[in-house]
Model the fold of this input.
Amino acid sequence: MSPSGEQPAHDEPSTDAAGSTPIPAASARRSAMLFPIGNIIAMLIPVPLGIFWLGASMAVYTLNRHHPNPLVGEFTQRSAYRLYGVAGFVVVVATFFGTQLYLWLITWALSALIIIPLSIRDLLRIRRMTWMDTHGEETAR
Done:
């Protein structure tokens, strides 16, 4: 009930004592899963999704790295370090490939062998964790 005795409308977000809207645990969990899922899809379909994901991942990183729930930021950062590390390695090594398709395929396979299993591991960890609603600056630990 509100101070005037009226019940709030159902479509209004609830607020805590500090006046901030709590972030639901399910929302934080989905946010933490976004970068690893993007990495997996980008590795499975590298052209054109891998190329687009390199650009889109920067936006996802920017949005989720400083999420009010610090666990979202940690999972995002780990996934980003892997993706950008592999991408940087590919840029340096692939400079010498030219048009030799088999070298590109070997590089893609090695990149997928690094990123996909670690992303799946992160997704499993995210799913197994107990996530709690985040209130303001409160941490989820």
